[in-house]
Design goal:
The complex is a heterotrimer of chains A (about 350), B (about 280) and C (about 325). Chain A is mostly helical. Chain A has helices spanning about 35-60, 65-70, 80-90, 95-110, 120-155, 160-175, 180-190, 215-250, 255-260, 265-290, 290-305, 310-320, 320-350, 350-355; strands spanning about 190-195, 195. Chain A is about 70% helix and about 0% strand. Classes of the chains: A mainly alpha (about 350), B mainly alpha (about 280), C alpha/beta (about 325).
């Protein structure tokens, strides 16, 4: 009654694998990011970019109105000067022609000339972008580190008092307007409230008249604290709540019971099995939430007069400086498209299930 | 289902608070007169700290902060609800169409939806609002136009699951046209989840309204929580440390947004038992 | 005691918002070393809970009382450290639904090697890998399969991986919880034969849980039938299958006819009604509502497990009537 229980592949077998010799060569490495997947994603990103460019054009011209009139409000100009201005800004041409010009220059990287600063939008963006990256980058790193870790612990011990407290705090922070938190921080820590003296500067990235390396570093740090905390608060809540929800989906999984049955410690079950599975959507989450970070930076920079793209955006709003608004819109949207593409390309590296499909 | 909701304490607390707020907002004209809100003929001295006469102090013009905060609920809630109506309306249309018709309709609609989701909401809303004349209507449109994608996705997912049910096939086989099937079968089944999603959207809408108002894109003559805060900053109340002008509107925004979030989450859990573990 | 597993008066109740739900109600079982015991029953009767209880894997909401003796040691009173040492090394489980019981983002070879590395701190990675290759060979898979992810394997292959994993630490007892559910019939037969052979070859005791009485009858020495959290009937496998004393056992046997078996000539007959809701059990015998032999005395009190033949027990007061009905 002995039946050869040989290596008969069952029906619907995966692709045949040539049997290498030895236990060590059992680790096979296939293509990490499938080519078709990558090509598809890049194509999608290009389409999105195109959509960004088109939207950028029509969004700011959807309202019939005369930007030249808005610019020259309150100043005595005659018809000839108005016509000359219109010609200078190219708005006397038909819409299609304008779109053609616009696309041609955007593709070259020329985002127009700002009405208020009279310099090219691209150069303005270039000079302001690093301040924003500095602020948003620092905040994202800290918020992700805290939010993801506490989210994991909350989910693992969900229902406990610590979990409820953490989730509660996160929900409150999530319901808090970013700009309001900024204002409160200024009042409490910047100006001083009751017994607490004003501890942190409330404007700009650094103070003038600070010399020397270490005093300068300290001064920069002091200026960074309040705007950074503002951004961290909102991002932290977002990361915590989403990571917690993601991990909770894994918490009841059968493979965790298998891991426990094998004799692993609870910590190891969490660290080696649950967290890696939950990390995949969590990492993409950090990338995809860049939109929230951008929105937050606009407000934080505005309130704290931080010399980045956010306050540039706010200033453009008040005029309104249409070319600058348009350029910033295109830049923000394009940045998000690129980051999303990176997140999508990263996914197969983290989740082997996506590799073979 | 209602019995289930009753068990969720957080949702009940949220709901109770919202009812209270709605009552206060609707009844406001009964005990707040036009003089209380007049910028020119304000009843009190501007920017006074809380005292016996004005429990929460006075704002930049001299109006009672209590009056201003309660009155502000009217605009903020109205905008929040209207914008959500717009967003969920568009979202439902897109979602049901995509889920029901499938094929290239679905692909195109979903590409558009995904693209909208990618854009930073505030940037889009702000850009839109800057192009239109500042005002409450603008804010409503800006929020509505930027908040519909999330609703569309949720509705589409629900539509797809409803579409796969056998009685839909039967309805179609019996000659039910698209409109008929969508109206009598899909919509009633999609409604509950849409309601949960809408509640969450209101929360976001209120926050966005405050932000847009703060950025100067709303009507400054209308008293809302956002315009109050914008005004405070404009007159230097922040650097002077006039905390009583900042605290009430902010606390109100947090409380109302949180309440809507709690109710929305409770609804989601009731409708989708799989989510029950999450809170 | 040379019983590798003994359950004494096991009660398991789950704490829910609506009150306690008794899932296992006073179960006594014994599995001698080297023996093969089958546990049959419909879904919801408590058999999976029993399997989980053996290695103390039930969630915190489960209230367990009674004794679970693994080679003479009570699992319930073991220290945490001792429990972790015992898990997998003395008793392992082949879970049902391998797609969900395996970690989807780790290679199967790593998952099979994991308990080896956990239980034997001194073993090197290469030695563990060699053992993995041997195990895969024993279950009929190519050694190269160790590099695959669970989703890259077929259902039958995944189940073989689960079996290889269960053998990894050379346990004394394997609990197979519905090892062939969700597999094609042909694959089912292969897997069951595989389990039978490996268990015999290594001298491992087997507790096999299934709803398929015929399968259990073929691969086990003794058979216990479970209903609504209690043992309804117990005895030698072939006898219980061919000639059940408890009405439920009889119905279960008739549901899975075997070709060529004279007793099955009448074809499969379903059982009317649904399994009882553990939170709302009826008065008296839990099976009475669906039983064709039910009488007044059945609804009065829940029958205890009593002798019903040579080496057989059944929890039914109408055993004689059932026997006469043939």
């Amino acid at each position: 009654m002995s039946i050869t229980v040989s290596a008969h592949p069952g029906s619907g077998d995966a692709a045949a694998v040539p049997p290498p010799s030895g236990a060590a060569s059992v680790r096979r490495r296939g293509p990490v990011i499938p080519l078709r997947y990558a090509a598809g994603r890049v194509a999608g990103a290009l389409v999105s970019m195109l959509a960004v460019v088109v939207t950028g054009f029509f969004l700011f011209r959807v309202v019939p109105g005369d930007p030249v009139r808005a610019l020259t409000r309150g100043r005595a100009v005659d018809a000839a000067q108005l016509a000359a201005l219109r010609h200078q800004f190219g708005i006397d041409k038909p819409l299609i022609a304008q779109f053609g010009d616009y696309t041609a220059r955007v593709v070259r990287g020329d985002l127009g000339t700002s009405y208020q600063y009279k310099t090219s939008v691209s150069s303005l963006i270039g000079s302001h972008v690093w301040a924003t990256v500095y602020l948003v980058g620092t905040a994202t790193l800290i918020a992700a580190f805290l939010g993801l870790r506490i989210g994991v612990r909350s989910a693992w011990k969900h229902g406990s008092r610590a979990d409820r407290a953490n989730s509660g705090i996160a929900l409150v922070l999530w319901s808090m307007p970013t700009f309001w938190l900024a204002l409160i921080l200024i009042v409490v820590f910047g100006v001083g409230f009751g017994p607490i003296p004003g501890m942190f500067p409330t404007g700009g990235m650094s103070s003038p008249n600070v010399h020397g390396f270490f005093p300068s570093v300290w001064d920069h740090f002091r200026h960074l604290v309040l705007p950074c905390v503002t951004l961290i608060a909102v991002l932290y809540a977002q990361y915590l709540l989403t990571m917690r929800a993601t991990l909770l989906e894994e918490v009841g999984a059968d493979y965790l019971t298998t891991a426990r049955a094998k004799g692993l410690r609870e910590d190891d079950v969490r660290r080696r099995h649950a967290v890696p599975n939950a990390m995949l959507p969590a990492v993409t989450l950090v990338f995809l939430n860049l939109g929230t970070a951008v929105s937050g930076s606009i407000l934080a920079e505005t309130v704290f007069s931080w010399p980045g793209l956010g306050s540039l955006f706010y200033e453009a709003l008040t005029v309104p400086d249409q070319p600058l608004l348009e350029g910033l819109f295109i830049f923000f949207a394009a940045a998000v498209v690129v980051i999303n593409l990176l997140a999508e390309l990263l996914y197969p590296i983290l989740d082997p299930r996506v590799r073979t499909s | 289902m209602i019995a289930d909701f009753r068990h969720r304490r957080a949702g009940l607390v949220g709901l109770a608070f919202l009812v209270l707020t709605a009552v206060a907002a609707l009844a406001a004209p009964l005990f707040i007169s036009a003089e209380d809100l007049s910028a020119v003929f304000a009843p009190g001295v501007p920017r006074q700290a809380p005292s016996g006469h004005f429990l929460l102090g006075t704002d930049a013009y001299g109006r009672s902060m209590v009056a201003v905060t309660i009155w502000g609920a009217r605009i903020s809630l109205t905008v929040g609800l209207l914008a959500t109506l717009l967003a969920v309306g568009i979202g439902a249309l897109v979602g049901v169409a995509a889920g029901h018709f499938g094929g290239w309709v679905d692909t195109v609609l979903m590409r558009v939806t995904d693209w909208f989701l990618v854009l930073p909401v505030l940037v889009l809303a702000t850009a839109l609002a800057s192009v239109l004349t500042p005002g409450v209507g603008t804010v409503v449109i800006a929020i509505g136009v930027t908040a519909w994608p999330t609703a569309a996705r949720v509705v589409r997912a629900q539509t797809l699951s409803v579409e796969s049910r056998p009685y839909i096939e039967r309805a179609k086989a019996l000659g039910g046209g698209h409109w008929h099937v969508m109206r009598r079968h899909i919509l009633p089944n999609v409604m509950p989840l849409m309601l949960a999603q809408a509640t969450l959207t209101v929360s976001a809408a209120i926050l966005t309204e405050a932000t847009l108002a703060f950025l100067g894109l709303s009507d400054p003559t209308k008293v809302s929580w956002g315009t109050t805060l914008q005004l405070a900053r404009a007159v230097g109340a922040v650097s002077a440390g006039d905390w009583w002008i900042l605290l009430p509107p902010g606390a109100a925004i947090i409380a109302v947004a949180l309440a809507f979030t709690l109710v929305g989450r409770a609804l989601e859990q009731v409708l989708n038992p799989r989510l029950q573990e999450r809170m | 005691m040379n019983d590798v597993l003994r359950l004494e008066n096991l009660y398991v109740s789950y704490k829910t918002a609506a009150g306690p739900v008794p899932t296992v109600r006073g179960v006594n079982l014994a599995l001698p070393a080297g023996g093969r015991l089958g546990l049959a029953g419909e879904s919801g009767c408590g058999k999976s809970t029993l399997a989980g209880a053996v290695l103390r894997l039930l969630p915190k909401s489960a209230d367990v009382s009674g004794r679970i003796l693994l080679d003479g040691e009570d699992v319930q009173t073991m220290t945490w450290g001792r429990l972790r040492a015992v898990r997998w090394a003395e008793a392992s489980i082949v879970f049902q639904g391998a797609m969900h019981s395996l970690n989807p983002v780790r290679r199967v070879g790593d998952q099979i090697a994991e308990p080896i590395l956990v239980h034997d701190r001194g073993v090197s990675r290469t030695a563990a890998d060699r053992r993995v290759a041997t195990l895969l060979d024993q279950v009929g898979l190519v050694a190269a399969r160790a590099a695959a992810y669970p989703h890259e394997l077929s259902g039958g292959q995944r189940q073989r991986v689960m079996i290889a994993m269960a053998l990894a630490c050379s346990p004394q007892l394997i609990v197979a919880d519905e090892p062939t559910t969700a597999l094609d019939v042909m694959i089912q037969a292969q897997i069951l034969r595989l389990i039978g052979e490996l268990v015999a070859e290594h001298g491992i005791s087997l507790l096999m849980i299934s709803h398929d009485l015929a399968v259990l009858a073929e691969h086990c020495d003794r058979l216990a039938v479970m209903y609504a959290g209690r043992i309804a009937e117990e005895g030698p496998a072939g006898e219980v299958f061919a000639d059940a004393r408890h009405p439920y056992g009889r119905a279960l046997a008739e549901a899975f006819p075997r070709i060529g078996d004279a007793a099955s000539r009448r074809g499969p007959r379903g059982l009317p009604g649904d399994p009882p809701d553990p939170a709302h059990l009826p008065e008296g015998c839990a099976f009475a509502p669906r039983c064709t032999f039910a009488a007044e005395e059945c609804r009065a009190a829940e029958p205890a497990l009593a002798a019903a033949g040579e080496g057989r027990t059944a929890a039914c007061v109408r055993v004689d009537v059932v026997r006469e009905a043939g």
